[in-house]
Every structure is written in structure tokens, then in C-alpha cells.
Amino acid sequence: MTRFLRELSESGELFAVLLRVQMQQRYSGSVLGLLWALLMPMLTILSFSIIFAGLSGWNLADYGVYFFCGYVPWTFFQASSLNAAESLVGNPLYVTRLPMPSQILPLVQVAASGIDALIHLAILFAIMPALGAPFHPAMICLPASILITAAAGAGASLLAAQATVFFRDFRYLLSSALFLWFFFSPVLWQPASLQGPMREFYRLNPAVPFLELFQLPVRQGVVPPAETWILASAVAAALCLAGSVSFSANRRRFYYYL
Amino acid sequence: MRHAVARQAPAAAETLVQTVAAGVKYRLLSDDDLTLRGRLSRMIQRTPASRHEFWALREVDLKFNRGEVVGLVGPNGSGKSTLLRMVAGVIEPSEGSIQRPARISALLEPTGVLNASLSGRQNAFLYAALAAIPRTEMAAAMPAIEEFAELGAFFDVPVRTYSSGMLARLAFSLATQFRPDVLLVDELLSVGDEHFQKKSYFRMQKLIGKGSLVVVVSHNLGFVESTCTRGILLSGGRVEADGNVGQIVSAYRKRYA
């Protein structure tokens, strides 16, 4: 475990180079480049907003802001863990031919998804005035929201990367689970619309505090309550601990499975 | 059985890598071993997991000293590459132990590590990061690498357009530029043309002069004989003979050629 952290702290340059390579491949590989990165979330948000705001009779502009607030951390977490699941099995020679710390590979995916998340946030800020949504002072807490979400993504990515080494079909299971989880989480719908006992039960969903870290400051202009911060931090810390401890224990066995 | 061949290294030589009764055990995995679906269906049908295991290396006691150029020879499947990977630190021994320095430059399947969509120059920076070489050092060495690899205008073109010889030249230039303490080379030198093989031979000699340890796996016996100072013959995962490279190569030829 100490080795795990020491290697990470010594590999800043490798991390930066791998991240740069990743971003170069993603954004300069096609003619449209960065435009693709902007286009996909815009299309998703626009189409979902029109359909779901229409269905629920919710004001389109307000719904768009609400959905975007949840979409940013959700996509960050989802892309981190799904791309990390491919990071070791997709680069077997890095693990089996190079004496490098393999934990770098899933964590680079988290950083790359983090950059995407920042781009998404920038798009949100750019369209907020057009949607008639004001900027609130409470939005100052967003950097902390991003950091906590990144920590959760890092822990999940370490777990997903290992699981895929040992079970190659884990990534399909993971993407299906995330797809279902998305609809059970308050990204498309508001908790206020829930009826009966569900109004309390939905809070058992560990995604809820993370979503609130973005939804509350941006849409409602309030700093999330301490309880939300503590819950999100606890989930992120548990994921990081589980991810790094199991990665340290299992890394010697990766070679045989790749 | 080990032949009685005298060790070449003088007693005072500094040992960089040492293995003690080291062994590496592989488990042969089927697709069912690698999927949740396969494991579950096995659990339901109560068929036990496949246990095809074999020892790729067994009871390996070796010392590698500074300044040696060691050639590993042996038939296919004798454990040469596994030994090299164990020395490189990408695989830990299943039994016994190994001591090795923290920084090792390993050139094991270099073409696989190069990124196809990056140019030769960009790959050089990627390689530097992977080998923990500071970026400034790599930038300073870039003209020398460019010249040695003889890639011309191709140096700034994605390496997916390279021929296998060009890839090997780039990889060799990168790995041997920085005088690592330990350099491991797996079947690389036989790829380049005669002119480049001559160049790489002199580059190797220079590295040896700097006191590096070089371990080479190659089926090119002529190269091993002319370049290495020590030979190790592996067979069935065990060290069969270890000593003067000429004797080792002729022992290998007698048995397998």
C-alpha cells in the first residue's frame, strides 16, 4: 500500500505524458477534434431535455440546467470507470513487458474524464445566461465537488480495471449496471416528484450526495449541507481505500491473466 | 543437470541481479477462467476449475554482474523470455526470490510498447516517461537518437507506417541511448539489416564499457557468440549450463541444432 502511493508520487511525468497521448488521440484524431467533445453532451442534453421536460410539463430551460448539473458528475464517474475497465486489458504489453506502476493506467482515464467534465461544466456556464439561469455565489464550492467526485471515480476505476483483468465480461456487466443505475438516480427526475416511501428511500442511493454537490449550488444557489459533503466524502474514501488496497494485493497476479 | 563450466566473472564483480531458487509457475487459463459467465456456469454445473499449471522456470540460481553481457540461449519454451521478464520486474517469482536494482531498462517486445498513432519523436518522449527518464534528458538526447535510428523524414511520421526493421531500429536507439544499469533485450537485434546489426554491436560494446549489465535473448547464435561474454543455456525452465559463451553456444548446437 505504501509502495502503491510512493510509485504514484514518483510517476508524475509518466502520468502527464500518458494523459497527453490520450487527449491527443481523442481530440486530434478526427477533423472535428474538440468539437466532438462539445457536440456529444450538447446533443444528449438537448434531446433528453426536450423529451423529458415535454413529458413532465417542466419548464424547458430550468429542466435543461437541472439535467446538466447531474449529467456532469454522472458522466465523469461513468466514463472514468468504463474507460478504466479497458485500461489494463487494452494495454497488456504495458503490464507484461514494462516495469511500470500499472495503477497509473486506470488513473489516467480518470484524469482524462475529469478534463471532459471540466469542458462540460464550461459549456453549462456558457449556456446558463441564455437559459435565464443566474450564477450563484454558492457555486464557489464546485471545485470541491469535482475533487470528491474525482476521488470516487479513482477508487471505482481501480476496482473496475482489476475486475476486468480477472473477468473479461465484467465491463459489459458494469456498463449495464451503470445504465440501470442512471435511471434510478435523480439525474433525469427530481426527488420532489417521488411519492410515498420512495421519498425517503431514494437517499440510500450512494449517487445522490454526489449529484447534490452539483445540483444544489448551480440550480438552487445553496451550498450543500454538511451531511451531503460527509456522505459523499465517505463513499469516495471507501472506494479509494477498497480500490487501492485490492490493487496492491492483486497486481502481482495481473501478468498471468493478461 | 548442470555442466561444469567455470564462471567467467571475477569474484570481486558487483552483483546487480541475483536469483535464489527462483521459479515461475503459469496457470493455463481457458476462456471460461476469464469470464464471470464461465465461472458461474462452472459453479452451477459443479465442475472444478481447470488446473493446468506448468513451471516455466524452476530452481534458478543465478548472479548477474556489472559489465557482463549475458546471452540466454535455449530451445523454444525453455524459459528464456520468462527469465528476462522476471529480471525486468514485470513478473514476480512464484517461489524463491530475486534481487534487482530499482531502475531497469527493458526492451521486451519494444514494437508493442510504441504507440502506433504517435510519431517516432513523440514515441521517444513516451518511452522516456515509461522508462523514468527525465523529459529534459530525452530532449537533449533526441538528435543522437534521430541520427542513430536512421529514419530520416519518417522520424516525424506515425510509427504505424514503419516497417518492422524501422520499428526495431527506433526501439533499439531509444533503449540503448541512456546507459541504464541493466539492459534487457528480447529477440531484437536479429531484425535490423547487416549494417544496423554492426552499429548495434558497437553500441553494445560501448554500453559494456560503461559497466552496464546486458542480458540478451536471441536465437541468432552468431550474434550471441560475438557479442556476449557469458552464455546461459536453459532447457525446460532450468539452467543447464552457464559459463563461457563459446562453450555454451557449442553445447546448445550439439544438443538442439
Question: TL;DR of this structure?
Answer:
Chain A has 258 residues and is an all-alpha fold. Helices cover 76% and strands 0% of the residues of chain A. Chain B has one domain: Rossmann fold (3-Layer(aba) Sandwich).
> Structural class of the secondary structure composition of chain B?
alpha/beta
Mind summarizing the main beta sheet of chain A? none
> Quaternary state, please?
heterodimer
Low-confidence stretches of chain B: 1-11
* Mean pLDDT over all positions of chain A: 90
Largest interface: A-B, 29 and 32 residues
Radius of gyration of chain B: 20 Å
Order of helices and strands of chain A: HHHHHHHHHHH
Supply the number of structural domains of chain A.
Answer: 1
Helix content of chain B: 25-40%
Mean pLDDT of chain B: 83
Shape summary of chain A: globular
Low-confidence stretches of chain A: none
- State the strand order across the main sheet of chain B: 5-6-7-3-8-9
Number of helices of chain B: 9
What's the number of helices of chain A? 11
- How far do the termini of chain A sit from each other? 22 Å
